[in-house]
Amino acid sequence: MSQDERIRVAIVGAGIAGLTLAVALNALDKDHKITIDLYEAAPELSEIGAGLNVWYRTWQVFRNIGLGDALIPLFDHYPDLKPRVVFEVRKADQKNGFKIVDIMKDGGALRIHRADLQRTLIKHLPLPGSNVIINSPCTLHLSHRLTNYTPISTASISPHSGPVTLHFSDKPPTTCDILIGADGLKSTVRQLFLTRLPDPEKYKPYLEPVWSGTIAYRGLVTKEELREKFPGHRALDLPGVMYIGKHKHTVVYPIGGGKLINVVATIHDKSKDGTTLDGPWNSEATQSEFYDQFVGWEEEFQALINCIKRPTKWALQSLKHLDVFAKGAVFLMGDSAHAMVPHQGAGAGIGIEDAYIFATLLTHPSSPRRFSPQHISHLAHIYNTVRVPRAIAMSKASIKQGYLYILGTPGFEGVREGEDVPKDMLVKIFREVEGNWSWTTSDPEEDRRKAVELLETGMVRL
Ligand SMILES: Cc1cc2nc3c(=O)[nH]c(=O)nc-3n(C[C@H](O)[C@H](O)[C@H](O)COP(=O)(O)OP(=O)(O)OC[C@H]3O[C@@H](n4cnc5c(N)ncnc54)[C@H](O)[C@@H]3O)c2cc1C
């Protein structure tokens, strides 16, 4: 099939979701019916460093799109279903901190350096001259910030039906058949998409993300330095530690082949939940500022802060629960569709599943080899049917998990930071946390099969 006749997919945003989609399309496109243009606003695909928690469910997606061998050496342990400790949880907002429970999960949590994952995805892009078997040729366009998209003909009936023209700042326009918005939390594609739905007023609250009222201090600790400053520190040997207290919790786990420890320390102010953030959503922070937030916490926790010279500070934002991710030939994916608070460690995982489901649908043998607006519109309905409920459920579960971590659920109203709480109450809370992760070993193929069934039976129609 000549390249001119192929279905032209434009992916806007080369974050985890956009990169995964390009890799998944190439892996599944056995009929060679797709070409990919990947547009990224940044001038280079810089590798951002911090930890990422990958659950066994997400691992299965990576394996199914051919990344298994490349990723296995980068995880902190082999991906299997052995029961493992995910976190030792400690009540740490007091000098004499103590262990509450070990949170166990079959398969544990696979921890990876984000830069390692991103590098692996980039290596597997079907770019000319790469070592990858190329089914769907991909062109990477850096320094391409999308500013608008328009139907190719002004006579076109719907602004969502392909083909569409893409407009960029300082770059000539181009065209595509299908537009994927994988451009993150502040997605331009989402904003354009929602204002062009039949009921744009309804979607005004979804244009911008909202602040969850939580600030996260993030940083990496080298094991070498921690060993020197605090010999025998438990974070040196454990697969994960969670330090909790009233309104605050911190997640700590090793990444980067065990040399580094990822630290994410959060502080929640319920009165700010749902408000719009005033000021930058991420910035540099000082060690002393970080320290001041955790005065009186147990010594081993403070030792971690002591090893983070240049922490960063992030306002955790999320998107209200959007009920439509696709229409016509425009699809939203990853944070662009469903940015969520990170308390289930699943935001990227859900974006990876979006990519997998979309790639499955478009490459399925019953999807035509040429672009058909009616068929793509049909795929949009299936994508909404399968992805919207999954993402909303996970976003809700993430919010709930966050309140459990910080003793923000009923029964803990009177508790203040640093106060003793009966251990049995704490154990109960963290057993609930453990139970809320039961989905992590479930099979992503169930959603994939559901999508394929809807496609084959034509049960979701315009
Ligand atoms: C503290 C914290 C911890 C987290 N931990 C986890 C975890 O353990 N596990 C997990 O699964 N998830 C986690 N997440 C969530 C995860 O980081 C995100 O869900 C994920 O990175 C989103 O990926 P994305 O590709 O959708 O968006 P992004 O990574 O934001 O990528 C979007 C890309 O689009 C580009 N772009 C933006 N606008 C334009 C434009 N107009 N034109 C062209 N390009 C554009 C950007 O430059 C960027 O490269 C965490 C989040 C936070 C904040």
Automatic annotation (TrEMBL):
Q: Which residues cross the membrane?
A: 7-28
**Keyword Oxidoreductase in annotation:** yes
Sorted UniProt keywords: FAD, Flavoprotein, Membrane, Oxidoreductase, Transmembrane, Transmembrane helix
List, in alphabetical order, the GO biological process terms annotated in this UniProt record: secondary metabolite biosynthetic process
Could you tell me one molecular function GO term of this UniProt entry? oxidoreductase activity
Q: Which residues form the FAD-binding domain?
A: 322-364
**Annotated Pfam families:** FAD_binding_3
Query: What is the name attached to this protein's record?
Result: 4-aminobenzoate hydroxylase
What species was this sequence derived from?
Macrolepiota fuliginosa MF-IS2
